[in-house]
């Protein structure tokens, strides 16, 4: 993941560890995570906080070409209102540290993706 995007997540790390439901978010990231990564996160001996730490660590290591930041934000938004608020906070942190023009939403319109929003984050 891009360093500036990592910085935005790390800035909100404590809140993520305290409030995130890692299994619900992980379900929205199945296309991005390998089966081994998902199993590691699911391990029963992990607390919710440890699962969140593992999920975030895995996402931070993902190649930027896979768009892990954008996928994580979308997963947060799709999980529930508390997670959606976390997504907004992370995005505000990202745009605050990188200037107001760095983030914009672009709508995608197609038969299968009507009303879906994609994030185009630029550096």
TrEMBL record:
Domain CARD: 1-83
InterPro entries for the chain: CARD, DEATH-like_dom_sf
GO terms classed as biological process: regulation of apoptotic process
Transmembrane stretches, start-end: none
UniProt name for this protein: CARD domain-containing protein
Native species: Plectus sambesii
């Amino acid at each position: 993941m891009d360093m500036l995007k990592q910085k935005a997540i790390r800035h909100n790390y404590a809140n993520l560890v305290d409030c995130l439901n890692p299994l619900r978010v992980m379900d929205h990231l199945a296309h991005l995570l390998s089966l081994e990564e998902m199993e590691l996160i699911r391990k029963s001996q992990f607390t919710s906080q440890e699962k969140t730490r593992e999920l975030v660590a895995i996402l931070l290591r993902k190649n930027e070409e896979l768009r892990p930041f954008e996928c994580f934000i979308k997963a947060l938004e799709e999980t529930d209102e508390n997670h959606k608020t976390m997504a907004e906070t992370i995005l505000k942190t990202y745009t605050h540290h990188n200037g107001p023009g760095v983030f914009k939403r672009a709508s995608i319109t197609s038969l299968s993706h009507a009303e879906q929003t994609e994030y185009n984050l630029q550096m």
